[in-house]
Amino acid sequence: MVLADLGNQISSALANMSNSTIINEETIDTLLKEVGNALSRADVSLKLIIQMRKNIKEQLKLDAMAAGLNKRRIIKKVVFDELIKLLDPGVAPWKPTKGKSNIIMFVGLQGAGKTTSVTKLASFYKRKGWATAMVCADTFRAGAFDQLKHNATKAKIPFYGSDTDRDPVAVAKKGVDIFKKDGAEIIIVDTSGRHKQEEELFKEMKEIETVVKPDNVIFVMDSSIGQAAFDQATAFKNSVSVGSVIITKMDGNSKGGGAISAVAATKSPIIFIGTGEHIPDLDLFDASSFVSKLLGMGDVKGMMNMIADVVPKDTKALEEIASGKFTFRNMKQQFLQILNLGPIDKFVQMMPGMSNIPQLQGDAGNLKLKAYINILDSMSDGELDGKHQITPQRILRIARGSGRHPREVAELVEQKKAFEKMFSKGPGLQNLANMAKGGVP
Ligand code: GDP
């Protein structure tokens, strides 16, 4: 993912700032220039970058900062928060209501990934226990009906569409009426796209919106769209009442900046990102987790959710970690459980310090975790339980014992420190404390 480059560039700009001997206006200007250039290379619109730089400058009045304050930390925090702000319009995401038929309408250009995302979202709600149905009102694209029908069969989700009726408004209305009568709780309507924004498309969208009266309109955008994203998202927002955004193909080579522009244009939150062509490839989106991951700080919130999904609750290890003690032995237990049960590549990418290493995707993530377990296997009980410091001599011995490179052992030691830091405060600790009590983070 090219977004990793953006993360690396911003992280290194922050590191340069941290390493400079004095912090003055010039250091801040250099940092802001580097961050701005990185965002610009990722296709974030210039207007947004200028605004962001202005916001940061306003918050960082060096003269007003009391002596003794950790300026570097404050600067980092302000940059981090402003990056989150770019991705978070400050609007709570729409949620369906129990006891009624919630109607969701999808809009977007042809090829954006609308039809694929309709099935992904329908499956998401089905897994959560909602009675879900899909309607194909895309009568424009030959094959749309068959594609959604095929997906619906695969995902075992009720479906309505017509390969003879060419009137999308009539098809949408009929499908929604049928499923409302059936008592479906989530009805997702897929609409036509066009190759480019055309009057005809917007007219059709408005008509469908009028008859199906959606509770939420989701705008689907391909993440690789680049600088055109802002205008495209604005055009859709001006036609129908877009309430949420799904950004697709985040697994590809996209620069990702378009996602940021779409949020600014629609003032709507990104609710999911598409990360592949298959039905489970849909990730819940959280701006703060995303930025943490981008900057290599790890996505502790996401990681905790994943651990909660796969690790049996009330384990002693969780209690220990929650009480502030995190040992190599805890780390090994967590790794083993994740390896046995979980989607490893995603987990590895969420780990603090590893999230922006693109080489760790797919099988590589799996192998990395296994290598770490080998290293942990070569540690003595004293080392595992934190009774001995891992000195350079010990690193060499552990490396020899596990057949891994000493650099990798040192990397694992750094990993543990990063975990410890994450668990010692913030959402990580709170989540763990909840999990140890049997709650959901
Ligand atoms: P629509 O015209 O907007 O309905 O687009 P489709 O749903 O037919 O998707 C267009 C192409 O993009 C298809 O080949 C999909 O498999 C692919 N696609 C959709 N979402 C994703 C995604 O998140 N990642 C990847 N890699 N491909 C996707």
Automatic annotation (TrEMBL):
Its main location: cytoplasm. One of its GO terms (cellular component) is endoplasmic reticulum. One of its GO terms (molecular function) is GTPase activity. It comes from the Eukaryota. CDD domains: SRP54_G (cd17875). GO terms for biological process: SRP-dependent cotranslational protein targeting to membrane, translocation. It catalyses: GTP + H2O = GDP + phosphate + H(+). Residues 269-282 form the SRP54-type proteins GTP-binding domain. Belongs to the GTP-binding SRP family. SRP54 subfamily. This is Signal recognition particle 54 kDa protein. It comes from Heterostelium pallidum (strain ATCC 26659 / Pp 5 / PN500) (Cellular slime mold). The lineage of its organism: Eukaryota, Amoebozoa, Evosea, Eumycetozoa, Dictyostelia. The gene is srp54.
